[in-house]
Design a protein that fits this description.
The chain has eleven helices and 20 strands. It is an alpha+beta fold.
């Protein structure tokens, strides 16, 4: 279970069909304004965007902990967030933000009762706030819940390592996960090696704090203390900065927010953060592949979520392209591009048999990995800058399929092309994350980098 909350409120002005869009938009704007007011250092990163399903997503920082407002047809408004990978201080701060927004708009938040009471491991209360904090405002009990959560996640990681897995994400809301790194838990503060993770199973306060950037409780109406500012800067640089020259205003804003948080933390408090490298990159105009050493998952290969089930491994420093009108997602850097389109299966038709597809394939490239069939071909793509090789592939498993297009410079990149194609995987049903906490690949345009 991912810690977080789902709270509901009665509409401010309820029409025949529930909330009007402008009501939710105003509440989202108020929440975004309060976040930026409390932590002015991250103000450029705080954005709001309306999703295709009518919900509003408030992106506070690109660390996988957005606040979502969902107006329900003929009912009230639901506010939800996943906080289990950020910390009890962040959880308490968001509740305080919602309290102040409710006061500004004449709302009264109530517990939605959406918690998972069946999770006996955490003895979760039957509550929309899975920590119980919204109801009791008990800070010590909130910390206890987060310590308990670390112990459970560490135990799960040990089991996965024993089954042959290496990098285990700290919850399903982690925005990015390194593809390599030995046996560790990938947290917002960097990888926690197996030895430290096994110690954290004891549930001690000291061990738990290693997993969270925001542990301490904020004063009402105020943002994080100085040590937390340092941790949040570290988190941004681990999961959201590609450690090359910024290629977009969003990437530049991440670097500037991290630098501002470091300034708020105080002189000489940078710890292991390579401040000189950060400053140099912010002044560099031509991006190059980052050096491998140093903090930052995006220095290496990372696993990207395409939707709730498909994953692909790509260099972390590739820049994301806007999702096009057909739902095709893309990344590029220098002379390489990768575009992927997950395709839902026709549930009325029989599930495809990967082995039969392999036997019938006449493609020059065809192979089987587990229960997934891969086939592809190479042709010449003629674009504005001239002709270049293009790989076109299709991955099919009994639960879905995905198309991929890769533009690359030539034969020297052929091994990378096939490795990228083969990394396109669909999660097994048992490994699928909680959809309520998954950060969608198709953010609203105002949120996307």
């Amino acid at each position: 279970m991912t810690l977080g909350f789902d709270l509901t409120a009665d509409p401010v002005r309820k029409g025949l069909f529930g909330y009007r869009p402008q009501d939710t938009a105003r509440i989202a704007a108020t929440i975004a304004g309060l976040c930026a007011e409390d932590i002015p250092e991250i103000a450029p990163l705080v954005t709001t965007g309306r999703q295709a399903d009518g919900t509003w997503r408030i992106s506070i920082m690109p660390i996988g902990a957005d606040l979502v407002l969902a107006p329900e047809h003929g009912k009230g408004l639901t506010a939800s967030a996943a906080t289990g990978h950020v910390g009890p201080g962040y959880h308490a701060w968001l509740i305080d933000i919602l309290d102040r927004a409710a006061q500004a708009h004449g709302l009264k938040w109530v517990d939605s009762g959406a918690g998972d009471a069946s999770d006996e491991t955490l003895a979760a209360p039957p509550s929309g706030d899975r920590t119980g904090y919204f109801a009791d405002r008990d800070l010590e009990q909130l910390r206890f819940r987060f310590r308990e959560h670390v112990a459970v996640e560490a135990g799960t990681a040990v089991a996965e390592w024993d089954n042959g897995d290496d990098v285990v994400p700290f919850g399903t809301a982690m925005p990015v996960v390194p593809a390599e790194g030995g046996q560790c838990i990938a947290t917002l503060r960097g990888p926690i090696p197996r030895v430290a993770a096994e110690c954290a199973r004891s549930g001690s306060d000291e061990d738990a704090q290693l997993f969270y950037p925001w542990w301490e409780m904020p004063m009402p109406g105020r943002g994080p203390d100085k040590p937390t500012c340092l941790n949040l800067a570290e988190a941004l640089l681990w999961v959201a900065f590609p450690w090359r020259a910024p290629l977009s205003p969003r990437e530049k804003a991440v670097a500037e927010a991290a630098r501002a948080l470091l300034t708020r933390a105080g002189p000489g408090e940078a710890g292991e953060i390579p401040v000189d490298e950060l400053e140099t990159l912010m002044l560099t105009e031509t991006p190059t592949q980052p050096r491998a050493e140093g903090i930052g998952y995006l220095r290496g290969t990372v696993t990207r979520a395409l939707d709730e089930s498909w994953r692909i491994r790509l260099p972390g420093w590739f820049r994301r392209l806007p999702v096009d009108e057909n739902g095709i997602q893309g990344w590029w850097f220098e002379d390489r591009e990768v575009h992927v389109l997950p395709i839902p299966l026709d549930r009325s038709a029989p599930s495809p048999d990967p082995k039969a597809l392999l036997a019938a394939s006449e493609s020059e490239i065809a192979f089987l990995q587990g229960d997934t069939f891969y086939e592809g071909r190479i042709s010449m793509h003629h674009g504005p800058s001239g002709a270049a090789p293009e790989f076109t592939g299709l991955a099919v498993c009994p639960r879905g399929k995905a198309r991929i297009w890769i533009l690359f410079p030539g034969s020297d990149a052929s091994e990378w092309v096939l490795r990228t194609f083969g990394s396109l995987r669909m999660l097994a049903p048992a490994d699928l994350p909680d959809l309520a906490t998954l950060i969608p690949a198709t953010h609203a345009q105002g949120i996307r980098a």
